[in-house]
Amino acid sequence: MGFLHYFPNSCLVVCSLCTLINADDFLGCGGFVKSDVEINFSRVEVKLYTRTGALKYQTDCAPNNGYFMIPIYDKGDFTLKVEPPQGWSFEPTSVDLHIDGETDKCSRSEDINFQFTGFVLNGQVLSKGQSEGPAGVSVSLTKQGEKEPLVQSATKTGGGYIFKQVLPGEYTLGASHPKWTFVKDTLPITVAKDSSSPAPTITISGYDVTGHVMSEGEPIKDVHFLLFSDTVSKEEISQCDTTPVKGFTGTQAKTPLCSVTSTDEGKITFPSLPSGQYTMVPFYQGEHITFDVMPTSMDFSVAHDSVTLPTTFRVEGFSVSGRILDSKRGNGIPGVKVKVQDRSEVISKADGTYQLIKITSGTYVVTASKDNIFFEPETMKINPNTPRLPDIIASRFSLCGRIVIDKLPAMLPSSGKRRVSLIPEGGAAKDTVSVATDNAGAFCFTVKPGSFSVQPTLNTEEVAAGLKLIPSQQKVQVQNAPVLGINFSQFKAVIRGVIKCIDVCGTLQITLHSEGGVEERSPAQISQSSKTAPFLLRDVLPGKYKVTVIQNHWCWQTPSLDIQVTDGDVTSLEFVQTGYQLQCHVSHPIAMLYHNTKSPKQSKQIDLNKGLNEFCLEKSGSYRLTPLSCHRFEHETYSFDTSSPAMLALTATKHLMTGAIVAKQPSSDVTVSIRSSIEAEPLVQLGPLKSQKELEEEAKKTVKPAKKGNATATDEETKVAEDTGPYVYEFTYWARNGEKLIITPSSQVILFYPAKAQVTIQTGDDCLGKVVDFEGRAGVFLSGQVQPGLAGVKISVTSRSLEDKEVRPAINVETGKDGRYRIGPLPDTAEYNVQAALEGYVLTKVEGTVGDFKASKLGEITIEVVDEGGLPLQGVLLSLSGGTFRSNNLTQASGSLVFTGLGPDQYFLRALMKEYKFEPGSQMINVEEGSTFRLKIKGSRVAFSCYGMIASLNGEPEPDIALEAQGVGDCGQVVEEGISDQEGKFRIRGLQPECSYELQLKSGDVNSHIERAAPKTQIIKVQGKDIDNLHIIVFRRLNQFDIGGNIITPSEHLATLKVLLYSEDNLVSPVHTLSLGSSSFFQFPSLPNDGARYVMRLESSLSKSSWDYTLPEASFSTDGYFKHITLQFNPERRAVDQEVSSGSHLALPLIAALIAIGLNHAKILPILQQLGLALKGFRSPGGSEVRDMGGAGDQDTRPKKKPRTRKT
C-alpha cells in the first residue's frame, strides 16, 4: 500500500504510474480537480495542446471524483489546460509540460493539481451621466456580517473591474477613493452557485479639481474663483459656495454656479465636480486696492479623473524702506551695502536709512555688509501690508591686533603662526574663542559688544622651546564700533649623570627626547673601559624630557628617566645595569627550565607567554634551556650565550590531544583507530584500552599492603566495593596543527555514538586537552509478528535521528513461516517506524504494539481488452481511480490487466489508446471487501498512423526533426505532429480515415538548424490503414557569412586606402583590416551568420593638409550568406592661396635686399655665401622632418589585428 491521504470533494491532477511503453511509446498523465465546495466535475474538461495551439487530446473528469487520464505519444512541449464553464476560476489554469521521458512531471510521476477557487464576478464603476468610468477606484467585496474585505480590486481604464475566486454567498460591494465622491459607495450583492452574473453598478458623483495662485513664488490667500458651465447645473455640484461674491461684477454673461477661495497656501480646490466642461474666473480685491490676476479666465474639462490645472494663477502687479543701526535704538550706520537676493544693491544714507523700489509680494533674504561691521541675513515677508521693514542691527564688530617676535627658538617653525585667545569678561571657559595669526603675526576677532581679555596662547611646542610673550594679556572694551591695534611684543640647561655596569661598560649611547618630540638630538656616544661611565648633555631648552640609556641586550634598573628643565641645571642622574636580556619567541605558552652551564644544579624555571618574551639572566656566560609543555618543539633543549646574544625561536610541531569513551558496560575489546590526513603518518591502532577503573585497580595492586604490627591486612579489608559504571576509556595522540583525524572506536559488544568522529586539530594558546568524546551503549532490537501468521510479508523499518531529524535508509526483512521477524541491533539514537506490505492484503498495526500487524485480504478488478476481431489488444492504458486510490497501467500481450489490493469503495475506470475507441470507454465499478469484478472492453480502430524516415543528402539519419500533418479540404481543422527519433524514423498518429494531409517540416525555431526539405511538402491520404515508407531529405543551414566589396576611386589613391571591419558592439578595435594595393576589390574572412551587426570603414593615408576628403562607412547584419558593399572615395587637392599670399608678402623685402647687395656686392657677397651654406644645412633636415611628420600624421597608429586565414 502507498501513503494514502483523503481529500473530500476533490479531484487532484496527478501523473501516477506514468509509464513509457516500448511498443507504442506514450506517457499517461492523469489526475483530479480539487474543490472545497460541491461542483459538477463532469462539466470540467482538461485539454492537451501543442505550443502552437493545436488540440492533441481532451477529456472530461470522472463524475464521482473527477479523475482523468490523458495519453501523450510524442516528446516535446505541450500545455495542459483546465477548461471549465465560463466564469469558473481554477488555480492554475494551465501547466506547461516539456515531455522528455525523464525529467518532466509526467515522466517522474509527480502530481499536477488544479484547484477550483470560485466564480468570476464582473462589475463597473461609472462617472455620473457617462457610459464609462475611471481607473484606480478601490472596490471590495465583504461577506455580510464581517468587517474585513474578502477580496479587493481596482478599476481599470473604462471603470471595469473583476473579482476572481468568489464563492457563493451574501456580500456587500464597496467602492472608495481618497478624493472622489460617490452617489452610493456600498451595495448588497448575492452570488449563487454556478453564478457568473455581473455586479451592480457604482456611480461617481464628482472629481476634485485643484490649482494654485501665487505672487512672485508666494502663495496668495482669499482669492475668489468663480465657476461657470454650459453642461452642468448648480444642483449637480456639491461642496462649493453658492453665495454671491461681494464686489464681483464679472465679464461673463452667465451667472456663476458657485465659487471657492484660495487657502493660506494659495491652493484652489473644487472638491466634487461631475464630468463636463467648465470655465473658472479669478477675482481678488484687498482693503484699498484691487490686484490683477492672470490669466483672467481658464477653461477646463472633467472626464474620469482628478484635474490639476496646468497653469498657476499669478497676482501681478508697491516701495518699502528700512534702517541700518549700530544697536537697538542706536545710531544709523552710513555706507552699508544692502542687497535683496538678485536685485541691485543699495547704500544706506548718513542716517542709516535705505529704500527698496518696485518690489512685489514675497519672502526675501536681505543682507547688509560693511568693513569690520557684520550683520545677520534677515528673512522678510514683503507685501502691501508691510511698507516699513524691520530694522537691521549690527550684530558683531572686528577686534584686531598683532604679535611681534624678533627671534624664534630653533625648534619652532618659521611660519610665525600662533594662536590668540579671546576671553569674555565673566564668561565661562566654553565661551573662550581662539584664532591663529597670519605669518606676520596679525590677528582679528569678530565679537559682539562687551568686555574681553585678549591673551596670546603658546602651544606645547613653543612652551617646550622656552618662548614667552609680554604682556601676557590685555583688557579690551567693545561698544558699538570696531576696536583695532591690540599689539603684543623672550634660558639653557646642562644635564649630568653616571652609568653603572656589571662588567666593563664598553660603548653605550644616551638619548634625549623632548616630551612632544619638539627637540630631537643625536644619541650621545659613551665609551668607558671601567664599570662606571659618566655623561654630560649641554644646551637643553626648558621643557620636559626623557633621558634613555641604549644597550638593547642588557637589563636596567630603570632604562629611562623623566626630567623637567625650568630655570636650572639637572644633575645626579644614574643608570644601573641589573642583568643580560634573553629574548625568546615561542608559538605557545610554556614553562622554561634554564641554568648556567657553570652551575648546572642551580636551575630556575620561568613561565613564557605566546609570542616574544624577554627575561634577564643575572650572570654572564653560557646557558642551557629546556621547554616543559604539552607541545613538542624542534629541539628538546636550546643554548644561549650572553657574549653573543641572539633571539631564540621555539615553534611547536606537534600537540598532545586526548579523547575519551564513556560506556555504561565494560568491554575488554575497545580499540581506537586514528587515520591522519597527512600521507606520511601511518594508521595508528590504540588498544585494547583499559577503563579508568581497571587502571586504578592495577595501580592499587602495585602498592604493598599495609601492616598492622607484625600482621598483614586481610583480603576483606583491602577489597574495593564493585562499581557498576560508567566505564571511561581514555586515549592520547600527538598531532600536528591543521591535521585532520578520523577517529573510529570499535567493539563487538558496544555501539558508539558517534560511530566515528572527524576532527581538525586547531591549536590555541592552551593545551589541546580532550578533543573528542564517544558514548558507548548497547544496541536496540525490534521484533513483531503478523496475524494470522503469513510468510513473506515485507517488513520495512525506517528511522529518523532524534538529533538532526534526518531520515535513514530503510531496513527490509521478510516474515518467517510463523509470521514473525526480528531486526537488530540498532542504535538507540533514533525513532523507528515499522511498516508491513503484502500484495493483495491490507496490513494494519495492532493497537498498543510497535511491530505487530493484522492482515486483511483486499478486492480486485480484472479487465480484458480485445479488438474488433476478438483478439487481445496490448498497450491500452487503463486508468482506475476511487477515493484516495488511483492507478494507471497498460494491458500486456494477453490484453488483460488485474488491479489488486482494492479496498471497499466506488471506482471509475477509463480505457485510453490513441487511434482507438472503446466500448465501454468508461464505467463506475463497486468493489466490496475480498470481491473480484471482471469486465471485458472492446476496442475499435478509428484513426491511423504514417511512418517514415528523415535523412540528410548522404543518407545519415536526422534525429529530433519536428513534422506536422495538416489536414486539407474538409479535414483542414485537423493537425497532428511527430518528431524523428535517433535513427531518423518518425510516426504521426491520429490520422483520420478518408482525410488528406499535407506532410511537412514544422516552421519556427524548432527546426532552426534546417534550411529546407525535399520534398518540401507531400500529400498523403488515409484509406483505412497505416501509411509506410515515407522518405524526407533535409538540408542543414550553412553557418558562415561572406562579406566583400569594391572601392570606386581613382587608381592612384588605391595604395593609400585600408578597409576596416568593426563589430557594432566595439568600434575601437577592428575585427579585420585589409590594404587594397592595386585592386579596388576586397574580400574579408568569413563571419558567423548569427545576425550580428558590423560596421565597415575606409581609412586613407592622404594628408589632410593637402587633400580634402570624407571617409565613407557602411553597416550591415550577418543575415543570409553573402553581402557586397561598394564605397566611394573622391579626394580633392586643397587650394594653395596661402602659399602664394605668403610669397607676395616676401617679394618687397627681397627686392630691397637684392638692390642693397648690388650696391655693396664687394662686402656682402662673402657674407651671403656663408649664410647660404648655413641655411642649406638648416633647411635640409627640417624639410625631411616635415615630410616624415606629415606622412606619420596620417598613419593609423592603432594596433592592427592579424588577418584571419579564410577557411574554404
Automatic annotation (TrEMBL):
Domain NOMO-like N-terminal beta-sandwich intervals: 30-114
Give the molecular function GO annotations.
carbohydrate binding
Q: Which positions fall inside the NOMO C-terminal transthyretin-like domain?
A: 1038-1131
Which parts of the sequence belong to the NOMO fifth transthyretin-like domain?
398-488
Record-linked Pfam families: Ig_NOMO (PF23141), NOMO1-like_1st (PF22898), NOMO1-like_2nd (PF22904), NOMO1-like_9th (PF22902), NOMO_12th (PF23192), NOMO_3rd (PF23193), NOMO_5th (PF23194), NOMO_8th (PF23660)
Q: Where is the composition biased (Basic residues)?
A: 1199-1208
Q: Where is the NOMO second beta-sandwich domain?
A: 116-204, 316-382
Q: Which residues belong to any copy of the NOMO seventh transthyretin-like domain?
A: 582-654
* Keywords attached to this entry: Endoplasmic reticulum, Membrane, Signal, Transmembrane, Transmembrane helix
Keyword Amino-acid biosynthesis carried by entry? no
Name the major location. Answer: endoplasmic reticulum
Which InterPro entries did the record assign?
Carb-bd-like_fold, CarboxyPept-like_regulatory, NOMO-like_N, NOMO1-3_2nd, NOMO1-like_9th, NOMO_12th, NOMO_3rd, NOMO_5th
Positions in coiled-coil regions: none
Q: Which domain of life is it from?
A: Eukaryota
Domain called NOMO eighth prealbumin-like: residue spans: 714-777
Any idea where the NOMO-like ninth beta-sandwich domain is? 778-855
Q: What is this protein called?
A: Nodal modulator 1-like
